[in-house]
Design brief:
heterodimer, A: 85 residues, mainly beta, SH3 type barrels, 7-stranded antiparallel β-sheet, 2 helices, 12% helix, 41% strand, globular, B: 630 residues, alpha/beta, Rossmann fold, two-stranded antiparallel sheet, 63% helix, binds guanosine-5'-triphosphate, binds magnesium ion, ferrous iron transmembrane transporter activity (chain B), ion transport (chain B), cell inner membrane (chain B)
Chain lengths: 85, 630
């Protein structure tokens, strides 16, 4: 499993709670189109919030609403860390 | 003038049904989680002498016709050509909401944008310029607060005064549509093209937002985030969930519902029954009529009516829970467990509806993403403790476990949930070997439940229970009275020789190893298929007879003593488990047929739940005996 995709880049499932990231691109997955329709497209800023028991699924904040997804699906979202404000 | 047709569309959970209810007076279900409304619903109203028809549609994030709801929406809009399509937008969540708006505009469907929940947007520090937004896209824009009658009523004047033909897509939108058409006409795979189109839409949305929404005053961390940090974070979320459910239950059962039920029990089954009894004696009516009224109707319907306070409190609690937004968190927290059962956490939301009644829960399964999730959810819903089973549990727990009544009933709830999850897993492995479920769920902001919604909903559902008591249970009581007092040779003094005794005895053979092989239990199990409450009205009739005539005796206590005679604590527990799990009532069976479209599934639901109930109650009884209980 490629954790580090490039410099400063990683997949969303590895982002720690409280961090903000920017979406680079989405890898092919069954949920890709639905995720994109719900506003997860390249350039979108995501804040990782919390996770359910056993760490999966996770809750993120995107475009001023909260969305829950499984880590397996988050793995398909490649992001870059934003400097913490 | 012809009827003005209005359609309410928009993302899930934006307040469409709230507005619909305010405008039409109809009581659609409202809840603070996405996917509450699963089918369209029409309402009619007159305003300024103009007849208006309004349709409430299921919420959708897009209209690609990929899911049943999306199909309902787009088919309706394209085929029915409503005069006004209202795009209800959650103003505090305007970015993502505009995605659907753009899709509708691309279909050349003119929309009236309704920035609903404007109160929340303001509270969060967002300033939206409706005027600018309207100029930019070319469509009219209004602002509403769905929960305020005053605010929504204004919509009616907007409807009658707005001529959608006067509005057309702005140049900005038209050039967007051209860009979309160009992508679609270009080279490449369909999926890739669709993704490019989505990116185009969000690029335009980013532009619209930057020009119309001022977010400079928005707090970086919302209250919802802070609450979620406790309620939906890490392992601790599970015990909290259990604790909250227990609290709901404790309120229903121990604090409010049961004390009131006890009082009512005395009023109906002792006082009222006694008064009627005396009156009938004084009037000198025929013996059979006297018996029918006192031993049949009052004993049967009364034993069900006793639980009205419990039912009202339960519905009140469920409705409050529904309004807070915690439901979606339950789905979130339960997903790890549901996933291991091959299901999705989302499946929990319709199941929780099942604590009220299985029928809406079975229909609510439509909101699930895959056909498999929906089928499994439908088939396991009957295991949950619906409002009609609660009285059965309450009665038996009160008689046999007086010191632990509420805990025993809570355990029955847990048994129902656990069996639902286990059987979901079993069905998943054996019957619906399908691809893995997915889980993508919007977690709405926590809201203070709208008290008006809560009270109306509680009243409506409670009323439903009352009506059922006055119709089905009434009719059943008469029938049970007849069957338990007559046989082929006419009236019989010995109930054990009645029709019902024969029928019940036949069925009761099945329960020889469960410890409740009495004909009364068998008869109750049969009548319970018609309506679960009938289990207690049957018991009420069968164990009450003869006692009520002596009005110095507390009829309710008499019934309890009689019950105590034919069950031991352990066999009562086995009976409770059986009642908890076996066949859905006929109404629920009918709904299963309707929702799955096949008789096969209806019969399957009946048969497999009975088998499961039989096995589990057997285990309870036999293991209990091995452990030395009786
Ligand atoms: N604060 C606030 N809450 C609102 C407003 N309008 C609706 N609500 C609440 O928002 C929640 C969702 O309302 P619904 O009417 O069920 O939403 P819906 O659009 O019909 O949802 P679906 O049927 O799931 O698509 C409920 O808890 C409402 O009480 C509003 O203007 N302001
Ligand atoms: Mg709705």
């Amino acid at each position: 499993m490629a954790v580090v995709v490039g410099q400063n880049k990683m997949t969303l499932n590895h982002v720690r709670a409280g961090s903000s990231v920017k979406v680079e691109y989405l890898e092919a997955s069954p949920l890709k189109e639905r995720l994109m329709s719900m506003g997860v497209v390249s350039g979108t800023v995501i804040k990782v919030l919390s996770s359910a028991p056993l760490g999966d699924p996770m809750e993120i904040n995107v475009r001023s609403y909260n969305l829950a997804m499984r880590r397996k699906d988050a793995e398909k979202i490649v992001v870059s860390l934003l400097p913490t404000a | 003038m012809s009827t003005l047709s209005v359609a309410l569309t928009g993302n899930p959970n934006t307040g469409k049904s709230t507005i619909f209810n305010e405008l039409t007076g109809i009581r659609q279900k409202i809840g603070n989680w996405p996917g509450v409304t699963v089918d369209k619903r029409m309402g009619y109203i007159k305003h300024d002498d103009r007849a208006i028809s309004i349709v409430d549609l299921p919420g959708t994030y897009s209209v690609n016709a990929r899911s049943p709801e999306e199909k309902i929406v787009i088919d309706y809009l394209l085929n029915e050509h409503p005069d006004i399509v209202v795009d209800v937008i959650d103003a505090s969540n305007i970015e993502r909401n505009l995605f659907l708006t753009l899709q509708l505009l691309e279909h050349h469907i003119p929309v009236l944008l309704d920035l609903n929940m404007i109160d929340e947007a303001t509270k969060r520090g967002m300033k939206i310029s409706s005027k600018k937004l309207s100029d930019l896209i070319g469509m009219p824009v209004v602002e509403t607060i769905g929960r305020s009658a005053k605010s929504t009523k204004k919509l009616l004047s907007v409807f009658t005064s707005t001529v959608m033909a006067n509005y057309k897509n702005s140049d900005l939108i038209e050039s967007h549509i051209e860009a979309v058409a160009a992508v679609r006409a270009g080279e490449g795979k369909d999926d890739d093209k669709e993704e490019k189109v989505i990116a185009l839409r969000y690029a335009l949305i980013d532009k619209l937002i930057s020009e119309t929404v001022d977010t400079s005053n928005m707090a970086s961390t919302s209250t919802t985030e802070k609450i979620d940090h406790f309620l939906a974070n890490g392992f601790i979320a599970l015990p909290i969930l259990l604790l909250l459910l227990y609290a709901v239950f404790e309120v229903t059962f121990t604090w409010i519902g049961q004390p009131l039920a006890d009082a009512l029990d005395f009023i109906i089954n002792t006082w009222f029954s006694g008064v009627v009894d005396d009156a009938l004696t004084t009037l000198g009516v025929a013996d059979w009529l006297h018996s029918l009224v006192v031993d049949g109707v009052i004993a049967g319907v009364g034993s069900v009516l006793t639980f009205v306070p419990l039912i009202f409190t339960l519905f009140f609690c469920l409705s409050v829970l529904d309004g807070t937004g915690y439901m979606a968190r339950v789905a979130f927290v339960m997903d790890p467990i549901m996933r291991r059962a091959g299901l999705t956490g989302k499946g929990i939301m319709p199941l929780i509806m099942g604590f009220g009644c299985g029928v809406p829960a079975i229909m609510g399964a439509r909101a699930l993403d895959s056909e498999k999730d929906r089928m499994v959810s439908i088939l396991v819903t009957p295991f949950l403790t619906c409002g009609a089973k609660l009285p059965v549990m309450a009665l038996f727990a009160a008689v046999f476990f007086p010191d632990n009544a509420s805990n025993v009933v809570f355990c029955m709830y847990i048994v129902g949930i656990v069996m639902a999850i286990i059987m979901a897993k079993v069905l998943n492995v054996t019957t619906f070997r399908d691809k893995q479920s997915t889980f993508l769920l919007e977690l709405p902001p926590y809201r203070i439940p709208d008290i008006k919604t809560v009270l109306l909903e509680t009243w409506d559902k409670g009323k439903g229970y009352l009506i059922k008591a006055g119709t089905i249970i009434f009719a059943m009581s008469v029938l049970i009275w007849f069957l338990s007092n007559y046989n082929f040779s006419g009236p019989t003094d010995e109930m054990t020789e009645s029709f019902l005794a024969v029928l019940g005895a036949g069925v009761s053979h099945l329960f020889a190893w469960q410890g409740f092989a009495s004909w009364q239990a068998g008869a109750a199990a049969i009548t319970g298929v018609v309506a679960k409450e009938a289990v207690i009205s049957t018991m009420g009739i069968l164990y009450n007879v003869g006692d009520v005539a002596d009005d110095t005796v507390d009829a309710a206590n008499q019934m309890m003593t009689a019950l105590g005679g034919s069950f031991t604590a352990l066999s009562a527990l086995a009976f409770m488990v059986f009642t908890q799990l076996y066949s859905p009532c006929v109404t629920a069976l009918g709904t299963i047929k309707k929702e799955t479209g096949k008789w096969k599934w209806m019969f399957f639901a009946f048969a497999y739940t009975c088998v499961v109930a039989w096995i589990v109650s057997l285990l309870v009884y036999q293991i209990g005996r091995l452990l030395g209980f009786n």
